[in-house]
Amino acid sequence: MKYLGILSALCVMLAGGCGTAAHNIDPSGPEALVTVSSVDPAEWSMVASEAMKSLVESGALKREDGRKSIVMISRVRNYTLLHLDMAILTGKLRQGIQMSGQATVTSAIGYGANLDESIRAVRDLENDDLFNQATVQKRGTVIAPDLSLAGMVLQQQSVSGRKEESYYMFHLTLTDLATGIAIWEKNVDFAKQAERPIL
Amino acid sequence: MRKSIIAVAIAAIGMLFAGCQNTVNTMENEEKAMRPAIVDTKHFVSDSFCNNRLKLLSFRKSISQGGVMVVQAELRSERYGFFPEIWSWWRNDNPYHVLYRFEWLDSNGMNVATAGSDWVPVIFIPGETKFLRGVAPNSRCNDFVLSVVEDGRNRN
Fold first, then answer.
1. ipTM score of complex
2. What does pTM read for this prediction?
3. Which pLDDT tens digit goes with each residue over A146-175?
4. Which of A25, A103, B17, B123 could crosslink A31 through cysteines, CB 3.0-4.6 Å?
5. Least CB–CB distance from B115: residue in A32, A33, A49
C-alpha cells in the first residue's frame, strides 16, 4: 500500500514535469504551432509576403505622372466559417505599401481597422466653441484615394477516414477607382492536413 | 548465416519502404534562351544536414517593372536515393518542410523589416526543384540575406 502511494506521487511529479514554462517564440518561426482549423501566423505572413512581392514587383502602384498613388484598404471578405481577424493581413499590407515608396495609404476611408474615424470627428469640432477654430482642421483638405485594395478568403474542408484537410485561398485585387478596372490580382493558397489519433 | 539473413531482411524492408516514396523527375530544354544575371553568394552554414538536403543550383537577379530588385534562389531537394529515402521515411520527413525568409538591407546596410521578413513555409518533394523569390521592399534596397531553416513546427 505504501509503495502504491509512492508510485502515485512519482507519476504525478513526472506528469507535472512534462509542461513547459511560458516563453516567447518567433510567431512564424520553427517553434510555432500548425493547426488545420485556422490560419496560423506563418500563413498570414506567407499571404502578406507573397502579395506584397507580387504587388511591388508588378509596378501597379506606380503612376505615370510621378505622384504617389493613394491607396484605400477596403474590405477583405471572410467567406470561411472561422473567425479570422483580417486586420492581421491588412496591417501587413499597409506597412508594405507605405514602405514601397510607390504609393501611400489613406486612413480617411476604408474598412474596419483601416478607417480612422478621428479624421471626420475632428472636422465636427467646427461648431464647438471649446476649441480655437483656427486650429480645427478644415473641410476639403483630405485627399481622395486613387486605388482600392480588397479581397476575400475562402476555405474548403475535406475529411477522409481519420484524415482532415483544410484548403484556404486568399484572393486580393487592386482596383483603379477612376475606371473601376482591376489592375492587379493575386491568389495565395495553401492546404493543411492532420490525422486524428485512433484513441 | 543467421546474421546475414537478418541483414538482408532489414535491407529488403528498408528498400520496400524507400520504394514507396515518390520522388520528382524533371525535364527541361537543354539549350537555354535566357541570359540571367548571376548573384555571387557568400554562405554561412550552421545546419549541415539542411545544407546537404537542399542544393543551391543558381542564384539570379533582375530589376522588376516596379523598379525593385528581384532575386531568385533555385534549390533542389537532394533527399532521393536509397539511404536518404530510408532516413526521411524513418524521420517522417517526406516531403521536406523548410522555412525561408529574405531580409533586405538599404544602401546604409540597415535592415528594412517588411511583410516578407517573416518566415515563409515551403515544401520540397525529394528531387523537386523550387524557386524561392525575394522582392526588395523598395528601390533603395539592393542587398539581402536569405535564411533557410528546417520547419520544426508541430514536431517539438
1. 0.78
2. 0.82
3. 999 999 999 999 999 999 999 999 999 999
4. A25
5. A49
